[in-house]
Design brief:
Immunoglobulin-like, five-stranded antiparallel β-sheet, alpha+beta
Length: 425
């Protein structure tokens, strides 16, 4: 409002105008660099932490990066991507040149927050719960970074850029608004007549029919709930099958998390995990029972992320790549044959799988109470039966003893039976 009349007055005299607005830096009107709203007087510098703005919204997380320092550093907007996912167009931002300075905007939907490798970590803090009472509340912290790619050369004169961000939400809110994120990976297969690309998908289901995908309730899954997993391939002819090398879980969405629990690796398998199909068709299938990570102790919910390292193998050669359980070695396959019989590995991720457990062991106590009367009843019944048997034995003994006494007294009675009773005289 204040700059309008002054700008028109300056234009009439052909002089440039620098205008200061309350709470902003001095901005030159009409400053341009390579078609972007950038002023070399302010933006010809290395990027800094203040260049990123984070908005933790109700449905999305919005990130705005001052593009001008990125531009002056020798990069373009397409060089910026979420969590190093530079090959995925969905993980890149878009230019907004209608502001000063020009910004690159990234939008992360809470419904698919894991799609570009963002991390979800659960912690506990004191705060108001859903009923407004102060208590221990589960907090889901979503974090990640935006960076530029590393050059293919040994050295580089360009600075490596990285912007970090994080947002925290009540975990119950995230569970209510977040859909289960499952990843897909494109895998390249080389053949004698060329190469083709197949897409692998890791999907979770409710039951063994594999008809309905897993839906996690707002309160989370109860411990030991059975989850059915499928790895499916598309754009694949019948000569190739899906081979799951190994699958494991982590408390975060990072497949390289130091804390991990293996579901199956070679012949080693978790007792609660069942493998239905592997290396025999274009789908791998198994099931496991959900659990909690001990690091989430004193928390009502735990997050579990599933990761599967998968490859494609020729249907005739898949059995040769399967380990022989009881032996540490695979079947005898030459190195050259193995490279042509299978593709490279792809890491597929699904999660977060939210599991819940009561704050107090109510269920265990109830089970204990249910079992206690049964044990007491059995004890009483046994005592009664023993008492009846003892009484029965004692009765038989008393009866035999009584008969013995009666037989011993019978001659005396017969001798005196001839004596007359004086009362009858």
């Amino acid at each position: 409002m204040l700059c309008g009349p002054l700008r028109r007055l300056a234009q009439a005299y052909g002089e440039p105008l620098t205008c200061w607005l309350p709470g902003t830096r001095a901005l030159s009107a009409g400053a341009q660099f390579n078609g972007f709203n950038c002023d070399g007087n302010f933006h010809n510098r290395l990027p800094a932490e203040r260049d990123i703005s984070v908005y933790c919204g109700v449905q999305t997380i919005t990130l705005k990066i001052n593009f001008c320092p990125v531009l002056f550093s020798g990069y373009s907007d397409t060089d910026l991507a979420l969590n190093g996912r530079h090959g995925d167009a969905h993980c890149r931002g878009f230019i907004n040149n209608n502001t000063f300075p020009t910004v690159v905007i990234f939008s992360i939907s809470l419904a698919s927050l894991e799609s570009c490798g963002n991390s979800l970590v659960v912690s506990t803090a004191h705060g108001p719960n859903a009923y407004g009472n102060m208590s221990l509340v589960q907090i889901g912290n979503i974090s990640g970074y935006i960076d530029t790619p590393d050059p293919p050369t040994i050295i580089s004169y360009l600075p490596g850029l990285q912007y970090k961000f994080s947002c925290s939400y009540p975990l119950e809110y995230l569970v209510n608004n977040t859909q289960l994120a499952t990843s897909a990976a494109a895998i390249t297969v080389k053949e004698s007549n060329g190469t083709f690309i197949s897409t692998l998908n890791l999907l979770l289901y409710n039951d063994s029919s594999y008809g309905q995908q897993l839906a996690i309730p707002m309160a989370g899954l109860t411990l030991k709930t059975r989850v059915y997993v499928a790895v499916k391939a598309s754009n694949l002819d019948k000569r190739w099958n899906v081979l799951m090398e190994y699958c494991y879980t982590t408390p975060s969405g990072n497949p390289n998390d130091d804390m991990r629990y293996d579901l199956f690796v070679s012949c080693n398998k978790d007792p609660q995990t069942t493998i239905f199909e592997n290396g025999k068709s274009q789908m791998g299938r198994f099931a496991f029972e959900v659990f909690r990570f001990v690091k989430h102790k004193n928390q009502k919910m735990s997050t579990v992320f599933l990761h599967c390292v998968t490859k494609l193998c020729r249907s005739d050669d898949c059995p040769l790549l399967m380990p022989i359980c009881g032996s540490r070695k695979k079947r005898d396959v030459s190195e050259g044959k193995e490279s042509s019989a299978a593709s490279g590995n792809a890491v597929l991720t699904a999660g977060p799988i939210i599991t819940r457990f009561d704050e107090t062991p109510t269920n265990n106590s109830q089970l204990g109470l249910l079992k206690a009367p049964e044990f007491q009843i059995n004890t009483v019944t046994g005592a009664l039966i023993s008492g009846v048997i003892i009484l029965g034995v004692m009765s038989v003994c008393f009866f035999i003893f009584s008969l013995t006494l009666l037989k011993g007294k019978s001659p005396v009675i017969s001798t005196s039976s001839g004596a007359r009773n004086p009362a009858f005289s």
